Amino acid sequence: MRLIGRKNEQCELERVIKSDRSEFTVIYGRRRVGKTFLVCEYFHQRFSFYHTGMANTERKEQLKNFNRSLHKYGNMPYPPVNTWLEAFDQLIHLLSHKKQKAKKVVFIDEMPWMDTQNSGFLQGLEFFWNSYVSAQHDILLIVCGSATSWMMNNLINNHGGLHNRVTRQIYLRPFTLAECADYFKIKNIAISRHQIVENYMIFGGVPYYLSLMRKEYSMAQNIDNLCFREEGELIEEFENLYASLFKRCENHVKIVEALSRKMQGLTRDEIIEHTKLTNGGGLTKTLNELDLCGFIRKYKGFKKKTRDSLYQLTDFFTLFYFNFMQNNKFDDKHYWTNFIENARHRAWSDYSFEQVCMAHIPQIKRKLGIAGVLTNVSSWRSKELERGAQVDLVIERNDKVVNLCEMKFANSKFVIDKKYDEVLRYKLATFQDELNLRKAIRLTMITTYGLFHNEYWNDVQSEVTMENLFES
Which of 6, 179, 210, 371 has minimal CB crowding within 10 Å? Predict the structure, then answer.
């Protein structure tokens, strides 16, 4: 199957393969996002050396596995070794005896799994790069890993022997809506734009999840088949996802569960209150790991100080799991097909659609005609907690305009009724009174099919629809 999207990433890989020096390229991103697929497809599996780390395996077995890869790509037996220094020394021998005009591509996948406790792996990697690769001009070292925090701390932000050694870094994000549409078209899956958005609200554009969709099933049938059938491929995905990324994932799970129940976000103090976790460096580390891996986001509210920052759950599948999969009391393998909309579903769909919009800010800016205008994107929550005025997307523009964006998921044109009109007016008035900005305030509605033009829609200065989010 050909690569879908990933145009910027492919350009980066082309640059490093054509450069006149050795390159150390780090590719990181959420589990299941397609890092391995990107590298293998782009290079058509033509590697001078390719190795994948093993999960939950100690140094001795990791070294045995590395030795097997050396045998495969070296076309000769290499004796077993006891240290990573010796193992990388053998890799140097392998590469130095390969005669080829093109750059030698060394691909090490799932590298965080190889760095077991007290293994000396990083020292071996430092030795490999500093003593050999950096002095060559014809080697491209590509390393991947889903444990983004490990990749950031040990490679990109390394303060030891690998400090400033990484020459390129690629953060692989999930597909956009446009890329999802391309994927479904190539896979010959008949699906509407509205259904693609709903699919995104559940799976977040993660390619692996999309690959499990079957064209003979409807959208609802696919969700049932994957998430609510006893043998469904994603029944145990939540547990596997967190356990594979974090050695002690219990606190990570407590935090995302708390955030799933407070969609407007929680401060650090509120997280401590809801999870009963201890304040300190351990909590900071856990929050940073979740943030780096793309499960949550930390954001500073509009005109707020850093200490008032909020944390929000942003991983679509995690949110779907806690809302519908964790305690599925119906024990119904046709749960999603037979689902009747209720208050919980409406709250989930509105919040999840908001996150879809947050993942497509460039498309929203393009529709508003401000693609080239410097902007600051944030959220805002009123000091008056009783009525709870909040705007989840505030776009502050360099041309002295602020767009307050309301996002609503609907199955037809969205209707602003009298009650919701009063809510909007209160939000606008509170925003202006509390901040007293010398800027024009514009109300922007982002909906699936646009607004129904009744007596209450005239205060809306601009509209963005689902179709606009599908722009490339």
Answer: 371
**Alpha helices (H) in 340-459, listed in sequence order:** 343-358, 361-367, 418-435
Residue 266 three-state SS:
strand
Q: Which residues pair with 312 in a beta bridge?
A: 297
Which residues, 6+ apart, have CB-to-CB distance to 74 below 8 Å?
90, 93, 94, 97
- pLDDT tens column, 37-68: 999 999 999 999 999 999 889 999 999 999 99
**Please, is 164 exposed, middle or buried when counting C-beta atoms within 10 Å of its C-beta (0-12, 13-18, 19+)?**
exposed
- pTM for this prediction: 0.91
State how far the Cα of 392 lies from the Cα of 405, in Å rounded to an integer.
7
The answer to whether 70 and 80 have CB atoms below 8 angstroms apart is no
Nearest of 169, 145, 172 to residue 15 by alpha carbon: 169
Closest CA to 245 of 30, 25, 26, 27: 30
**Size of the chain, expressed as the number of residues it contains:** 472
Instruction: Give how far the C-alpha of residue 348 lies from the chain's centroid of Cα atoms, to the nearest Å.
Output: 19
Retrieve residue 118's tokens.
């007290």
